[in-house]
Design goal:
The protein is of the alpha+beta class. The protein is built from 2 helices and 2 strands, in the order ββαα. The chain has one domain. It has helices at residues 21-44, 50-86; strands at 5-10, 13-18.
Length: 90
């Protein structure tokens, strides 16, 4: 059974992750914390645009990590397939 996929739209960018539910829950918690901190920063300095730039940088990092997660998962699946096909039959 495939892991669930979750998509968020953040600052106009789509972030899609396919991962185990625990990983998605951790990411959701992290995004909520980032949002709270950004809102607090905007209250302190509403005229400063650096908060938006910082959030965009964080999203870029998350997109990169998400793409690596997909690659890692594909690598593990290929490795499992190779290992299961190379095992001698009883």
């Amino acid at each position: 059974m495939a892991d669930p996929t979750r998509t968020w739209i953040l600052l106009g960018r789509r972030l899609t992750i396919q991962a185990p539910p625990e990983s998605i829950a951790r990411l959701e918690s992290l995004l909520a914390e980032i949002d709270q901190r950004a809102q607090a920063l905007r209250k302190v300095r509403p005229d400063v645009d650096e908060v938006t730039h910082w959030l965009m940088a964080v999203l870029s990092v998350l997109e990169t990590l998400a793409s690596h997660l997909d690659r890692y998962e594909a690598f593990c699946q290929r490795l499992e397939s190779l290992l299961s096909s190379s095992q001698p039959e009883p």
